[in-house]
UniProtKB/TrEMBL annotation:
It is a multi-pass membrane protein. It comes from the Bacteria. Belongs to the binding-protein-dependent transport system permease family. CysTW subfamily. InterPro entries: MetI-like, MetI-like_sf. The chain crosses the membrane at residues 12-35, 70-91, 103-125, 145-174, 199-219, 254-273. It is found in: Cell membrane. Its main location: membrane. The keyword Zinc does not apply. This is ABC transporter permease. Keywords: Cell membrane, Membrane, Transmembrane, Transmembrane helix, Transport.
Length: 287
């Protein structure tokens, strides 16, 4: 009996999580895949016909929004790496006893609703807002200068929205680095730049990899920032999918676009992992 319990114990532990994933991930995914191959409308109902043309038509109609979403996601991830690494580095190596406080301050704005924070950015970037209006009054900026409704505003909102998801993984990776390794590099007459390039950054790659995974995917599929901070010229695929699901009830096209975006994101992630050398990253992470 004890042997049976030991054998079943791991499966029983996995069972709750497995059921959750089955009900709220696998089943919806299969349902959405079925919808993407159906034809019909809300009035007459949808019928599964294996209509692959939904994918071809959706990509042809919204390829601009699709490419724009991937580009915005990539730019956001790149900016986040540049911004987050110095912050995480300083906290990890110079934060001292206040590391937890600094991390809490980074997370503090995210206790507020995602939508409310994005609306706050809209109020900040509007022409007569607290940021641009004084600069225009002072003559520093021209009267026709505008940020809201541009790609800059959307990307700025995305960077702000996902900043902690890049800082925290990089911080965890840097925190695991033995300071004696960095000291050894300096003892071997490595300059600070060489020490960072040859020692610190390679050891922090697992955090960078995890941060990109946690930012590129949601940034590319986001629609709140492009809806509130952008314009018709900055429409992302997430907006199109949201509109087709909730407004026009074009479920097959919306599902086809969702799967297309997901496939491209997965392909991009695998290509990114391969370029970094996933095995090398995992070996570093295991140390």
């Amino acid at each position: 009996m004890d042997r049976v319990k030991r054998t079943l114990a791991p499966y029983l532990l996995v069972l709750p999580g497995g059921l959750w994933l089955l009900l709220f991930f696998a089943v919806p995914m299969v349902t959405m895949l079925s919808l993407s191959l159906q034809e019909g409308d809300v009035v007459n109902g949808f019928v599964f016909t294996g209509h692959w043309q939904n994918y071809v038509e959706s990509i042809a109609d919204y390829q601009t929004q699709l490419i724009r979403s991937l580009v915005y996601g990539a730019i956001t991830s790149g900016i986040l790496i540049v911004m987050s690494f110095p912050v995480a580095y300083w906290i990890a190596f110079y934060g001292g006893k206040r590391k937890a406080t600094y991390l809490f301050l980074i997370l503090l704005p995210f206790f507020v609703s995602f939508v409310l924070r994005t609306i706050s950015w809209r109020m900040l970037l509007t022409d007569d807002g607290v940021l641009l209006h004084p600069l225009k009054e002072a003559g520093i900026l021209p009267d026709d200068f505008q940020v809201l409704g541009s790609a800059t505003a959307v990307i700025a909102g995305l960077v702000y929205s996902f900043l902690p998801f890049m800082v925290l993984p990089i911080y965890v990776a840097l925190e695991r680095i033995d300071p004696r390794v960095v000291e050894a590099a300096r003892d071997l007459y490595a300059s600070p730049i060489t020490s960072f390039r040859k020692v610190v950054f390679p050891l922090a790659l697992p955090g960078v990899f995890a941060g990109v995974l946690m930012t590129f995917v949601p940034a590319s599929s986001d629609y709140v920032n492009s809806e509130l901070l952008g314009s018709s010229e900055t429409t992302m695929l997430g907006q199109v999918i949201q509109s087709k699901f909730l407004s026009s009830s074009d479920y097959p096209s919306a599902s086809a676009l969702s799967f297309t975006l997901m496939a491209l994101l997965l392909a991009g992630i695998f290509a990114y992992a391969r370029s970094l050398g996933t095995e090398d990253v995992m070996k570093v992470a295991a140390r």
